[in-house]
Amino acid sequence: MFNQKKIKVNFYSAKTKKANNALKNLKKKYKNYPINKADVIVALGGDGTILSALHQSIKYSKPIFGINRGEYGFLTNPYKNVDLIKRLEKAKKTELHGLKMLATKKNGKKSEAMAINEVALLRSSRHAAKIKVQVDNIVRIKELVCDGVLLSTPAGSTAYNLSARGQIIPMKSNLLALTPISPFKPRSWRGALINSKSKVTFIILDEKKRLVNVSADFKEIKDIKKVEIREDRSIKLSLLFDPDHNFEKKVLKEQFSF
Predict the structure, then answer these.
(1) What are the catalytic residues?
(2) Which CATH class is domain 99-233?
(3) Residue 247 near residue 94 (C-beta atoms within 8 A)
């Protein structure tokens, strides 16, 4: 991965006791380089920490090696008291892309955001949301009555998408998961897998009464009437995994977890 050169590490840590203790131990053994001079970011925490580190890394195009010092940690490697540099030398890279979102509010104002996990629309009033769903400008659902709907990347497919009973997606599948959240109509629809090159548009119906917010990872926009999403291949992000702990194996294992 790093062609046997001396690897410069930048540490990124969650603000928890478990993560901070691991950070202190690692800093005793390895120099902590500024992010702009580092070869790799080593992130300590759970999946939320990895997601935050990925957003941080966009500007610098640094690969991220996550170490689980959080809860679930699907995007991380196990914490081990072994030579970190040797682990990094042997690590395998998994490349991923984010989603570019353009949201139009009820007042006509437009906002852009980038999501690595998912773009999620959620009702923000007592009324169920009514949403028209288009894929590549073709109406696929005239009226989805629901609590919300989300579009997930492979990296995010094991997060909110999985909790909403969406399908897990292998990283190299070139697919996105389109998943309803508590659908009432059509009640039988459980989502779809679509080509990652597709443009997905959500149009809020009766938006004055049925208020809907949208979130792209950490950014939330309130009172929207339209959301357009497509994968952004101009941004390339990289996660590093131990050879025996790679993402594809974890995806396969997760699909047989009960």
Answers:
(1) 47
(2) mainly beta
(3) yes
